[in-house]
């Protein structure tokens, strides 16, 4: 008897908890599949009064399409005793919402299933956030695809962008117009197949006036996105719409803005579900990113067009420059080559004097030509650095030797001071280093009327083999005013332009030096006092070579040269070096000789009639590949003005480049580079 009040208290207490709970609770009968009781929160969530659901079927609150799924879940619940699942509830007014349901079985004293107690939670917000995140990630992935695709043209990009936009919004059709605000004209740039096939004539025309596309242009007129989920309804804005067979049910369009101007119009249509503001946000986000890619692509195309125009102009200038250089230098090749060979013979003092006069005059003319052509070459092509093995000491001594007689004629002493332990063999751009030193020594002699010109050479070697070359050229000449010292490295600038007339020259040397030193990764500066003299200092990075290479007398060279004087000079120099030389007068003969005989090195002129050096070396490489023949080093002979094309020579199959007119020191360095 005493337990009955307690049970009654438990029931009352349970009923109070059940009714007052602020979460949704429902009690249903397992046998009848009907509600026994629901609390106020549960009924309110579904738009009912609690008594309206009493004795109602539990399937009343489930969307019809999930009934079978719910039946399977209830079987699972009866077996497990407790489950959690997600489903779709339907309110009294017919609206639907996603729910998370947690259900538990209560059994009687005999273990038979009696009741189910379930709680349900509206997860609309969570589901919406999850779906929005998924759509955001899809949008990001679509943008990444556009960024990574590497489209070749804007049309290709817009076609892909439209395809992604249609997929993102779960639409069936779409288009992209480019809009010109000033003319109010729209140009169709991308469209889905359904759009194109529905009004072929208009697509072929491709251009519409804003007033001629009706509702499609409303997003431009209002300067904001437009959503139309009942497209078939009467709408006065449809007037003047292009005639077509495309049946639209739902439609969304939005303008693309840049700097407060509309630049494009994007539209998608015929989604199964109504379009929402979320669709608009996704479309705006995606198309905004797409337009960033498009603008970069257009900028790239514009830069490429400018670059191609500049390269075309540079090629024309380069070819003209090469031809001019070739024609100007060819006579000098013979003169300088002849003097080099004559200097190796027994001469009387008088002959030696005349020979030096020829050498000095020819060298001066070559220097002027080189300065002019170098300046044009640097302006049009830039500077290409070509590193090779060479003797730093020999290179500097050659420059000093070149100017010794010039200094002597002016009554000057030209002195060279080489620091102890200066390495003999280094790797660097020997031609550029010679050119820099030529300019500095030439200037020092030019602007010094009495006293000395002193050249100092030293090398600071680091542990990793890298080194720093230090060159200083000091004179006791006119000096440079402090305010002029920063200007002398500019083109056509000397400390006083009257010096150009007084001392000769073009005022180009230091400007070219400055650019060459910068290209080699070094620095150049001047320390000077007016009327007392100047000291020019240069520091250049270089690599020291510890093991010197040397050729043997059986080293064989094939010389391919169509100019008789140049061939005579090169042959004489090579044979004086103890090398075996075979001469071919053109590229065809050179190829024929090379196919019959192996050579340690081929020296190939690049400017020959019928077959150029470039074409010849490509044929050599082709034969080597086809026959499995060992690669023969082929070095191009080119006038100095074309030296900036060094990378193109290597890309064409050459192994190196040597400047014309040929100098013994350059030949020795080249031979050492390829000797066994």
UniProtKB/TrEMBL annotation:
Residues 10-81 form the PAS domain. GO terms for biological process: cellular hyperosmotic response. Residues 83-135 form the PAC domain. Residues 323-544 form the Histidine kinase domain. Residues 556-675 form the Response regulatory domain. The keyword tRNA processing does not apply. Gene3D superfamilies: 1.10.287.130, 3.30.450.40, 3.40.50.2300, Histidine kinase-like ATPase, C-terminal domain, PAS domain. Its EC number is 2.7.13.3. InterPro entries: CheY-like_superfamily (IPR011006), GAF (IPR003018), GAF-like_dom_sf (IPR029016), HATPase_C_sf (IPR036890), HATPase_dom (IPR003594), His_kinase_dom (IPR005467), HisK_dim/P_dom (IPR003661), HisK_dim/P_sf (IPR036097). It comes from the Bacteria. GO terms for molecular function: phosphorelay sensor kinase activity. Keywords: Kinase, Phosphoprotein, Transferase, Two-component regulatory system. It is an enzyme of class 2 (transferase). The keyword Transcription does not apply. The modification 4-aspartylphosphate is found at residue 605. CDD domains: HATPase_EvgS-ArcB-TorS-like, HisKA, PAS, REC_hyHK_CKI1_RcsC-like. It catalyses: ATP + protein L-histidine = ADP + protein N-phospho-L-histidine. PANTHER family: HYBRID SIGNAL TRANSDUCTION HISTIDINE KINASE J. This is histidine kinase. It comes from Trichlorobacter lovleyi (strain ATCC BAA-1151 / DSM 17278 / SZ) (Geobacter lovleyi).
